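ok here's Sugar ABC transporter substrate-binding protein:
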Amino acid sequence: MSHIKRRTVIGTVPAALATGALAACGDDAAPAAAGKPEDLDAALEAGGKLTYWTWTPSGEAQAAAFTAQYPNVEVEVVNAGTATDEYTALQNAVAAGSGAPDVAQIEYYALQQFVLSDALVDLAQYGLADLEPQYTASTWAAVNLGGVYGLPQDSGPMVLLYNQAVFDQFGLTVPATWDEYVAAAETLHAADPNRFLTNDAGDPGFAQPLIWQAGGRPYTVDGTNIGIDLQDEGTRRWADLWNRMLQPGLLAPIPTWSDDWWKALSNGTVASLISGSWMPGILEGSVPEGAGNWRVAPVPSYDGTPVTAENGGSAQSVLKQSANPALAAAFLRWLNSSPESIAVFLENGGFPSTTAELASPEFTGTAPDYFGGQRINEVCVAASENVATGFQYLPFQVYANSVFPDTVGAAYTEQGDLNAGLEAWQESLQEYGETQGFQVD
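and the structure:
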């Protein structure tokens, strides 16, 4: 549920983020205070005060559960805004050298930016690299960026959510391939021009996981050396497919998370969603009119072979400005690896990144009435096991996402060629990266 506002806040990352990142790569970057695993238990015993920036709905309850177990520690939970709002405030604090929290929630796509700006503590010094087996491969890869710069909070393997009542009404079958998905969209829209199989008004947080799933690997990152190819084979595969939805008008031009979107999901105007596995909890809580109608299925693939990508997800990280990094790391260890904390997170609709919960019969056996008694987590867990590997984000991805509407977005507005929009986006990103001192190829 921490993703509900992520796509509504698109802004511009300050240039200081990139320039600060480059400066941090030099020899003068201040090293983090050295620590060791035994420091964590000692820090918990000594106690102290921590500040935790998060927007997850479970944040307050998790902090309360932690302080009940460790009364010597006080945790101040601060909602500094979601996504770009928080990242702007966080980067400003990093640049100023003060004002950062001890622990911050950072989405996987943005984490690399703060690693490159030398803002985060490498948790490996506290032995937290040993926790790797507890997490899914895709979420661990997201935090293991030359060091362990956070612990995964949740995951978002993409799945297909669909309105079974609408599918039955119009004789649609659940598509296993993207060709079948396009055919279903054509059938539905031809039968009722006011209905759409799905919506998309142009969202980088939606497009990039689909590019990932299609085999696109448009970004390569090696320190300050960046490669951008938004016309590689997989990226073109997605764009060519999505053109078949966009250009004939088969996509509802409704922005995700807008009031119109919620209405369309409620009245059946939009009959399916492609989203992260955190979406079922949001749907159940926000679209009560759909109770009993919705189901979950694997996301379609190009050849019917199960493959997906991560759509969303966050880590929690310790900031180097923390006056007590060992205590912050101990809190972080409890927050994202203890059964007590994870139980609170799941109660608030989160989808776990931890393999123990994903393998739990209690978790996989959940059969909500909202989804017609379907054991939806079985589908979501299977998706988590089929996440394609090797995808990277840019070290200025927050900025990149902010200019998506000005480039690729034009193709959506004009129902034009997404490949042309991607080329314009690439040109903009290359120009920006070079002005910030990156070597961009």
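+1. Confidence is low (pLDDT under 50) at residues 1-32.
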